[in-house]
Inverse folding.
């Protein structure tokens, strides 16, 4: 998930609201009231946050998908990682797997998300003595 955008927009909105308390030119006159654009940034951050939280459960492979496609995905793991290291976008890799192996695009993308999570946790790394 892209949490950086939520943090950036939320911070910008809060900063504009706070700065607007002391600097009058930050407020835009709208129909007799003065409107601080920081509210727009905060609302946008809230929408991004809601989207991230609502999408999160749909980014995991289901048991059915693992049952149906797990073996084929496992066979393509090295290829996926190699293409990723070459700088190929995930969408292109998923399209390639769909064309070559018949793997559904959504399943391939979910698998790549799972691989990224696994890699971020440092799985498989051994520590020296």
């Amino acid at each position: 998930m892209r949490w950086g955008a939520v943090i950036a927009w939320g911070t910008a909105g809060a900063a504009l609201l706070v700065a607007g308390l002391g600097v009058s030119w930050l407020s835009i006159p709208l129909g007799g009231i003065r409107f601080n654009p920081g509210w727009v940034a905060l609302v946008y951050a809230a929408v991004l946050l809601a989207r991230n939280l609502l999408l999160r459960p749909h980014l995991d492979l289901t048991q059915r998908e693992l049952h149906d496609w797990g073996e084929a995905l496992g066979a393509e793991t090295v290829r996926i990682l190699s293409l990723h290291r070459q700088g190929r976008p995930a969408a292109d890799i998923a399209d390639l797997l769909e064309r070559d192996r018949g793997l559904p695009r959504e399943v391939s993308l979910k698998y790549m998300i799972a691989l990224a999570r696994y890699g971020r946790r440092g799985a498989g790394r051994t520590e020296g003595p």
User: Anything to note?
Assistant: The first helix runs from residue 3 to 22. The chain has six helices and two strands. The beta strands are 28-30, 33-35. The two ends are 35 Å apart (CA to CA).
